[in-house]
Amino acid sequence: MRIGYGRVSTRDQNPEAQEDALKAANCDRIFVDKASGKLASRPELDKALIAAREGDQFVITKLDRLGRSTKNLIELSEHLRDSGVDLVVLDQGIDTSSPAGRLFFIMIGAFGEFEHAMMVERTHDGLAAARARGRVGGRKQALKPRQVQLAQQMYDELGADGKRKHTVQGIANELGVARTTIYRYLEKKEIA
């Protein structure tokens, strides 16, 4: 089965040219999204991907109609490949059922791996540079050392009946943090 997919990026664009090209390519089913914005959902793409079965062809007019970014395109291409679905791009003459088309898939995957490796390398370099300047990453401590000491004192304080005088929720309210934060600091104290 040939499944056609088209997408227009703005409300002003008309999908008819893509629909006509997909019909001319003998697509059995055609799905078209009218999505604007990078984060807009694409329900028709989701339906098309669900409809595509092993041995089917997923037909689009241009490569940019499938993915909004290189990363997104690579992810969708890999999904199709893993599902055993061939990708056909009409305007670029790409057909992954041919050796040249499979080479294209391999190149997309290689570019994706390269892009990921470069991103990881840049992240490590940035963290190393920040550490060299005395900055450490991660979230800022929720409580200052004096507040931690106060929380521990309140937690350890017993009433006349021998029970804890303050609840963890009461301590959290007093210090303006979540109850889980108090537990986290109390656990660190018990471990140390």
Automatic annotation (TrEMBL):
Residues the record marks as active site: S9 (o-(5'-phospho-dna)-serine intermediate)
* Any Gene Ontology biological process: DNA integration
Q: Which InterPro entries match?
A: Homeodomain-like_sf, Recombinase_CS, Resolv_N, Resolvase-like_N_sf, Resolvase_HTH_dom, SSR_resolvase
Pfam families given for it?
HTH_7, Resolvase
The alphabetical list of record keywords is: DNA integration, DNA recombination, DNA-binding
What range(s) does the Resolvase/invertase-type recombinase catalytic domain occupy?
Answer: 1-134
GO molecular-function annotation terms?
DNA binding; DNA strand exchange activity
The superkingdom listed in its UniProt entry is Bacteria
The entry sums up its family as follows:
Belongs to the site-specific recombinase resolvase family.
Q: What is this protein called?
A: Recombinase family protein
The source organism is Streptomyces luteolifulvus
